[in-house]
Amino acid sequence: MIRKSIISLLILFSFGFSQDMNALQAQVDEAAKLLSASDILSASMLLESVLMSDSTFAPAHALYSELELQRGNLNEAQSRLIKAIKNNPNQETYRARSEKFRELVNKMRDANRERESGNSDASKKIYNEILSEFPNFAEVYYLLAIMYLQDDDYKAAKMNFTKAAELAPTEDKYSKGLDAMLAKYFQRGQESFKLGDYTTAEKYYRISLEIDSKYVNSYLQLGVLKQKQGDLDGAITCLQKGIEAKPEDVRIHYTLGLYYLQTKKNNEALNQFLQAIKLNPNYSRAWSSAGKIYLAQNNLSKAAEYYKKSIDLDQSSAAAYDGYGDVLIQQNRYKEAIDALSMAVALAPRSYTTFYRLAQAYNHEKMYSEAIDAAQSATKINPRFAAAFIEMGFAYAYQGKDVEAINTFGRARSDPRWRQYAEHQIELLRSGKPVEP
After folding, report:
1. pLDDT value at position 21?
2. Contacts of 118 (CB under 8 A, 6+ apart)
3. Could you tell me the sign of the dihedral formed by the alpha carbons of 387, 392, 397, 401, in that order?
4. Tens digit of pLDDT for each residue in 88-145?
């Protein structure tokens, strides 16, 4: 009776053990599927779960060995395989794999020695032999990529960096290899650009886009390059392609808007600035630039709204204060304009156009001495700026200083655009009549 009970217990235990082993093996099989999809993180988590249930489960250690090899960790791969053999010494496939690993170690040593000796072709040949037998060994693709990069074969380098990163997406160094290559070619473009070698610069910028078609800096620099060459249409085309590649990037929309402004395509420019604002509502420069277009369209209320928002976001924006001051002058809000324009010149003391507008506002407020000072500041920065001489002439005339006014208007006559206007004011003063702004 006792014997029968023991036998029954053994049968139950054996059945339960078999069920447990099947469950663990099912998890290992699932981990293998995840690994084949390069989902290394999920696969490793599943294997860790299996080994927490049974640290001696050899298939889990064996698969973990392949996972570590895929990540590029050959030493850890060997260590995991040794554990698999230890827990199931009769499994011939583990021993055969261990022998392959020993051959791999020797081949890696030979390839690395050739590489360090400068024998690039010999080293590549051995690395490729390794990959024919171990196609999921990420480290070899990485080493090949570095060698191709040294040879300036960016296409082969990209292919191998990409393969390494795809096999082992959790390993930063493989993705960083692509980043480093991208930075290398972009920097070459920058260096050529600084030397004025635009042909070579463009070549390297375009190579960087072959490496990463969404690299915004290259689109932006190609735009700058085309602008430098006087090809604004080409600059616009570059930025349009940049938007196609990465429509969520604010900088491309904003810069494209600036190029449209230079080509007098104000509606297209406004659309880009508004898109930049939609993507980043805190982008002060886009608010200011949109305000500039609304001002050009004589939409003063909209212009004021957008300039004020720009100032709220960035109180160091001289352009926003200047534009807002211009709007306020046109709205006959001269005291407020003086405040805004005073801030603008404090932030940008070399802006002669802002000093000119400030002189305008002072004249309207009958602050003639201040108007003269502001206009003189403008002409010190740009001695040929006729508009400032006109505003200065008005200030002298309003003070009753006709001689100074005539002399000042005379200096504006050098600009053909202002000559007739200046001569008219001089004629009025010489005939004893008031000036006519």
Report:
1. 82
2. none
3. negative
4. 999 999 999 999 999 999 999 999 999 999 999 999 999 999 999 999 999 999 999 9
State the DSSP H helix or E strand holding residue 119, giving kind and residue range, or none if neither.
none
Provide mean pLDDT across the span 281-303: 97
Nearest to 181 by CA among 230, 223, 224, 144: 144
Under a CB-based contact definition with an 8 Å cutoff, are residues 81 and 65 in contact? yes
Using CA atoms, how far apart are residues 374 and 351, in angstroms rounded to an integer? 11
Residue 333 carries which DSSP code? Answer: -
Start-to-end CA distance of the chain, whole Å, equals 125
d(Cα 370, Cα 376) in Å, to the nearest integer?
10
* This prediction's pTM: 0.83
Work out the number of other CB atoms within 10 angstroms of the CB of residue 226: 21
Domains present along the chain, CATH in parentheses: 23-114 (1.25.40.10), 213-275 (1.25.40.10), 282-349 (1.25.40.10), 357-437 (1.25.40.10)
Please count the other Cβ atoms lying within 10 Å of the Cβ belonging to residue 78: 18
What is the rounded average pLDDT of the residues 24-46? 94
CA 74 from chain center: how many Å? 36
Q: What is the mean pLDDT of the chain?
A: 94
Whole-number Å distance between alpha carbons of 168 and 172: 9
For the record, the structure tokens of 368 come out as 């003639």
Q: How far is CA 174 from the centre of its chain?
A: 20
Instruction: Classify each residue of 391-415 as buried b or exposed e, where b means 16 or more C-beta atoms within 10 Å of its C-beta.
Output: bbbbbbbbeebbebbbebbebbbeb
pLDDT value at position 11? 38
With CA atoms as reference, report the closest residue to 175 among 222, 148, 141, 213: 141
Residues across the chain: 437
| Model confidence at 307: pLDDT above 80 | yes
**Integer angstrom CA distances of residue 232 from 193, 207, 258, 259:** 17, 22, 11, 7
The per-residue pLDDT for 20 is: 78
CA 197 to chain centre: 24
Angle at 93 between CA 87 and CA 95, to 5 degrees: 65
